[in-house]
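pls read this stuff:
=====
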Amino acid sequence: MAINNFNLASLIEQQDATHPLHLIEEHINPAYAKVLKILGYDIRYTKGQGQYLWDDQGNRYIDCLAGFGVFGIGRNHPVIKDAIKQAMDLDLPNLPKFGASRTAGLLAEKLTEISPGDLDTVYFCNSGAEGCETAIKYARAATGKNRIIYCQKAYHGLTMGALSINGGLEFRDGFGSLLTDTASIPFNDAEALERELALGDVAGFIVEPIQGKGVRIATQEFMKAAEELCRKYNAVLIADEVQTGIGRTGKMFAINHYDINPDILVTAKAISGGYIPLAAVISRRSIHNKVFSSLDRCVVHSTTYGQNDLAMVAGLAAFHVIETEKIIENSAAMGQKLMDGLSALIPKYDLLKDVRGKGLMVALEFGSPKSLSLKVGWKLLHKVDQGLFPQAILIPLLKDHHILAQVAGHNMDVIKLIPSLTINEQDVTDIINAFDQVIGACHKFPGPAWEVGKRLTQQVLKKQPHNSKTSSPSPAEAK
């Protein structure tokens, strides 16, 4: 068969003659493009490798966003790349749909081997949100009940079902009615959970062991109580490990820190090495059998690209890398060094109130200072917008120190670091030193960091009608 030449490099070069952001602004998301320009995040990245990004000036950046956790083993890992090439060269009979996949069973077997308890069946889909949607349906089918309980401040995705159990109410505005059979409880409140479960109509309780928004960590007591209460009241315990799974917290899953066994575990993001969209819903066979309960219901829940060969192969290769390169061990070790170094800054700087996390899921929380002069700047920024202050740290962190990071959620004075799990000791030292300098600059008022805040304040006020509610121009994390 004749092959018509396709030159991707030429297409990208033509686009770069203007700016990659131009077509995003023109055809995809003008508001997002504007936010990137305001914040100074409109950088022309030209290459990604491991835990680093490079721009068109040759500058190297330590990426502490990792595609919101997708690049757990780093960008463009050669083993994953080679595995995908092998799969393509084999001309596998991809997605026969009414036939068996040659690769899906291998990855499913691996996932059940590493999962806690007796989770032994796997459903493959494309994203964390789709996985959480699946978990809702599974819990309802398994129990014959409807209600789903979730935690305040939780994040489970932005599709309509997932949005209905999303504790970030700012994501709901403008989208009309959602699922009505849901209720939220305060995070780490076992008594509130039992009050809801005792009503007898709860199908499932979904929880992130560590909340992505704010990096709030579930207590051992709460997670153990959640397991016991769900058993007592015949509700399904769903662990959302979309971001915390696959080594992020220094163990394979964050649930491993608690020694409990959920009924369903949803994982995604880093599972395929950052190459192909992939999520997995791992469940007890008894639950799975309630969904696919008869021959005529064998495809009652499905997705077109589920079990596609390239995603399955990428997942198999990712686990090979995780095991052979001791990625999880590195996550635990480098995470501890990072938190120790950042925690040492707390006594030094009045603005820094807390450093917390597990593995390489780390948060720095800031708060009102005692110094009268600093309080003036703090109150000014927060009067304009509750989420503005972190940008006074994040923008110089990017511009002056080439470290890419972002806020941990809307209206939070929390910065979250979720770098690739491959970062090394020098990277950790560079991150700590950069925060030391930038936070130090924030303790000089007026000073360069507060000038950033002043500029953003002007942008926020400029873009808002008189007397309207303001919101800071900071991109929010999404699953």
